[in-house]
Design goal:
By secondary structure, the chain is mostly beta strands. It has strands spanning 2-7, 10-13, 18-26, 31-39, 46-52, 57-59, 67-72, 77-82, 91-99, 102-105, 109-114. Strands 2, 4, 5, 6, 9, 10 and 11 form a 7-stranded mixed β-sheet that branches.
Length: 115
């Protein structure tokens, strides 16, 4: 069993910053990648950023240069630092972990950016 708990969401003004955290626990011996996704109202869920087991990162074009994904292996935590936030970044942000055995999702954390 694998559990993911996201935190760090909230309300921020445009141009501000937030740092999301995803704590992963359980049987996590074979992580392939950890990803942050988001889903805005009325839109499909989209991939925002990912980090592989080897540390390779990738980002959606819409967040490149503003968001940074990182991991703290000692704490089994993956962070998403979000800077220069825009109203269009408003969404529920979900963390998922891809294991060899499957993909597990957290419950999400709301990010709201006011103009």
């Amino acid at each position: 069993q694998v559990q993911l708990v996201e935190s760090g969401g909230g309300l921020v003004q445009a141009g501000g910053s937030l740092r999301l955290s995803c704590v992963i626990s359980g049987r996590i011996f074979d992580i392939v990648a950890v990803r942050w996704n988001r889903q805005a109202p009325g839109k499909q869920r989209e991939l925002v950023a990912s980090i592989s087991s080897g540390g390779t990162t990738s980002y959606a074009d819409s967040v490149k240069g503003r968001f940074t994904i990182s991991r703290d292996n000692d704490k089994n935590t993956v962070h998403l630092q979000m800077n220069s936030l825009k109203p269009e970044d408003t969404a529920v942000y979900y963390c998922n972990v891809q294991l060899i055995a499957g993909i597990y999702w957290g419950q999400g954390t709301q990010v709201t950016v006011s103009s």
